[in-house]
Design a protein that fits this description.
It is built from eight helices and ten strands. With 262 residues, it is α/β, with parallel strands linked by helices. The structure holds 2-phosphoglycolic acid.
């Protein structure tokens, strides 16, 4: 894992946007895996700015989102479909037919999950997957004890995740769907690059367990220790529990010019 510590979330988001933009410029038909939640908002804002001001072209880009709630219609204000269109897709030149999210209203959930995996394969696999981390260590909605071999499937949210996400549902946990469809950990690990973002003191323990703790399904994000290309962009607060933070800074500051992409 490469740990990139920036002074604040804005700077970390901008640095991560440069990695995404470089990929899209080098590979105009790149396949991006995308995430929702509060964390990637500044990344998406910066990509929109790059599109508008620098002509970053998404016309041939394909996207697959990590997850979706079961039981929310696309047009529900808290569906991840709505989130993605509001915060990114409506503001860039992506083709609607190139956008994919799991179908939270599927009549046959297992068949729809298998079809989602097949669509990712048909697109040539994910080049870059954006990830956030839950305070319980989840990636996508792969909650603790999720199999490292898992593929896209139905999951039940932990009570912690329901409580964390209640803020999007008028603070009312009873309105948060308890089930979701999520890419599996195996799906995420198949991406060529994983780009994790984590900000704020509330993520510090999860970040330190992910980076420096044992690899365990109790901390799903720790599997990224086994990924050949995982970049972790964090702010000072999220880095505050890392034992080797000075080493990560030293590594980053000493990178040769040709290796710098953020
Ligand atoms: P957050 O969620 O960005 O809203 O903190 C992250 C996650 O649950 O993966």
């Amino acid at each position: 894992m490469e740990i990139i510590i920036k002074q604040n979330a804005d700077m970390a988001s901008h640095a991560s946007a440069r990695v995404v933009a470089r990929l899209v410029r080098e590979k105009p038909n790149a396949v991006l895996g995308l995430a929702t939640g509060s964390t990637p908002l500044m990344l998406y804002r910066e990509l929109v700015r790059m599109h508008k001001e620098e002509g970053l072209d998404f016309s041939r880009v394909t996207t697959f989102n990590l997850d979706e709630y079961i039981g929310l219609k696309k047009e529900h204000p808290q569906s991840y479909y709505t989130f993605m269109w509001e915060n990114l897709f409506s503001q860039i030149n992506i083709k609607p037919e190139n956008v994919h999210l799991p179908d939270g209203m599927a009549a046959d959930v297992p068949a729809s999950c298998a079809a989602y995996e097949q669509e990712i394969l048909n697109a040539g696999g994910i080049d870059l997957q954006v990830l956030g981390i839950g305070s319980d260590g989840h990636i996508g909605f792969n909650e603790p004890t999720s199999s490292f071999a898992s593929r896209t499937r139905i999951k039940t949210l932990t009570q912690q995740t329901v409580a964390d996400n209640a803020r999007f549902f008028d603070g009312d946990g009873s309105k948060v769907p308890h089930h979701c469809i999520t890419m599996g950990i195996g799906t995420i690990m198949d991406a060529q690059m994983n780009l994790m973002l984590a900000f704020g003191a509330g993520k510090a323990d999860a970040v330190s367990a992910m980076v420096e703790g044992p690899v365990s399904s109790m901390m799903p994000a720790s599997i990224l220790q086994h990924h050949p290309l995982a970049k972790v962009f964090i702010d000072e607060a999220a880095a505050s529990a890392l034992k080797l933070s000075n080493y990560y800074r030293w590594v980053y500051d000493g990178k040769p010019e040709w290796q710098r992409d953020a």
